[in-house]
Amino acid sequence: MTADIPIATYRLQLTADFNFYAAAAVIPYLKALGISHLYASPFMKARKGSTHGYDIVDHTKLNPELGGEAGFGRLSEALQRHDIGLILDFVPNHVGVHFADNPWWLDVLEWGPASPHAVSFDIDWDQLPYRARGGVLLPVIGSSYGQALESGEIELRYDADEGSFSAWYFEHRLPIAPERYSEILRNVVKEAGADDSTAGKRILALAARYKGLPHPNRKEAPAFKTELKAIDGAAETIARGLDAYRAGPDRPAQILALHHLLERQHYKLGHWRLASSDINYRRFFDVNTLAGLRVEDAGTFEAIHLLVKQLIADGRLQGLRLDHIDGLRDPGQYFQRLRRLIRDAQGKDAKPFYLVIEKILGEGEKLHPFSGVHGTTGYEWMNVITQVLVDGSGLDPLDEIWRQVSNTSPKLEPLLKEAKRRVLETLLASEFTVLARLLARIAGGHYSTRDYSADSLRQALELYVLHFPVYRTYLTSSAPSPHDRALISDTIEKARAGWFAADEGIFDFLRDALTMDLLKPGGPAHSAPRVRRFALKVQQFTGPLMAKSLEDTAFYRYHRLLALNEVGGDPSARALSVDAFHEMMRTRAGEWPHGMTATATHDTKRGEDARARIMALAELPGEWTSAVGRWKILNAPHLVIEGEMRAPSAAFEYMLYQALLGAWPVGGLDGIFAERMQAYALKAAREGKQETSWLNPNQAYEAGLRSFIERILDPTVSAEFLDSMATLARRVALLGALNSLSQITLKVTMPGVPDFYQGTEFWDLSLVDPDNRRPVDFVARAAALPALENPDWAGLARHWPDGHIKLAWTRRLLKQRAELAELFAHGDYQPLEVSGPHRDHVIAFARRRGRDAVIVAVTKSFAGFSQGGRSWPRAEAFEGALGLNGYSVEGMDKGARELRLSGLFRHLPVAVLKARLEGPLKPSRKRLRA
Question: Which helix or strand (DSSP H or E) is residue 668 part of?
Answer without folding.
Answer: none
